[in-house]
Amino acid sequence: MPPRKKIPLKKKAPAPRKMVLVRTPNKPGSSWRVDAVRYEAMREAMMKVLPRKAPGLTQAEMIAALKRVASRKHFPDGGKVSWWMISVQLDLEVKKVVVREATKPLRWHRAR
Question: What are the two backbone dihedrals, phi and then psi, of residue 78, each rounded to the nearest 5 degrees?
Answer without folding.
Answer: 70, 15
